[in-house]
Each structure stands twice: as structure tokens, then as C-alpha cells.
Write a structure and sequence with these properties.
mainly alpha; Arc Repressor Mutant, subunit A; two-stranded antiparallel ribbon; 10 helices
Amino acid sequence: MELREYMSIRRAYNLVRQEMDAPRRLTFQELAVLCRLVNTEGGLKTSEIASYQGCLRPTMTHRTKHLEQLGLIARVRGDYDRRNVVCTVTRLGREYVRELCQKTCSGIAAGHSLARTTPERVCRYIDAMGSLECDAGELVLLGLLVAEERPCTISHLVDMLGFLQPTVSMSISALEDEGHVRRVDIEGRRAQGVELSESGAEIAEQIRERISEIIVRRRSRSAR
């Protein structure tokens, strides 16, 4: 997977998420769980989903319980091992995935990567992207890595990432404290920009490398 494809989908979903009703608002990782279940016949154990997303089992239990409370998945304990919980997507869950992927697809602006893709393909991209969890700060680093405007203004980062300005500003402050970005004056303007430090650029490149290893599964011939 290419970095610009990753950023294009993350930006589009960030914008979609802002418009969602708070009770039904899903994190990107929660949507990725739903997309994985939509693309997997027979359901998956909680431990399998945790392994796919590279998180601890208690974290995944919390995520799947939230999805269950929303009626988007069903969780059934095994007959022999009560700790063995199998998750399957419900009809409501499939409908919600279809809705969110359609809105995400529509939110990819012309000229951006995947602007001509389909909602079904977006679902497979999000499924694959769920194997790598990037928080807001890491997305800011990636945004600075690919930004054509350097130094990059906060308003430009807001537009690039689809986040609200407070989210970007707080992420930059935290990254600055950690020494991963620095603020610089923009020549000819009464404003400051942001740029990567050496450590920030190194982290961003490491994330880019991990993104390049993401493989988007093709739709099986039997499902076509």
C-alpha cells in the first residue's frame, strides 16, 4: 500500500467521523474490525482480531463489546471454552459499513489517491489498514513528511488530515515536547509553521515503511 493511499482514506474517514452522531461514532480501528468481519466468512475469535490489529486481548474485548452494544456485531461464547468468543457482523453492522465506506469514498477529493475507487474497495483498504494503528500524532508526522508546503502551517495540516484544529494543535504541542517537530517562522508571513526534526523524520519514515508492507486483499472470485 502506498502512503498517499493510506493518507487519502484516513483523511476522508476523519471528515466522515466528524459528522457522525456521538453515540454511533466509531474509531478507525473499530471500523476496521467491522470491515474485517464483513470480509471474513464465519466470524473471527476475539483473539484472532486482536492478533490482526496487534493489540492486547483486553483492548480488543473493549472494542468488540462497544460494537456489540451498538448492535453492529454479535459475540458468542464457545461451547467448550467460555473464554473463546466468536464475533460476527450483524445485518445492521453490514449496513453501517456500507454507509460509512460510501461516505468515505465520496469524501476522497478529485486529485487525491483512490479518488476513483469504489465503496467495496474502500472496505478492503480499511480492513487491511486496521493492522497498523496510527494515532493523531503519528498522522501529523506523516502529514509533515508528504506536505508540499514547508514549513507547513497548522491550517494546511488540518486540511490534509481532516482533523479538527484543536486535535492538530494538541498533537503538535505533544510532538514538540518530545522533540519530533519544531515551530519555525514563515518568511514574509506573520505566522509560524511546523517542520519535522531529525527524530520526527525518522519516525515518519519508519511508519511509511510499515504502510508499504500492508497488503490489500482482493475480492475472491467466488464473491464476484
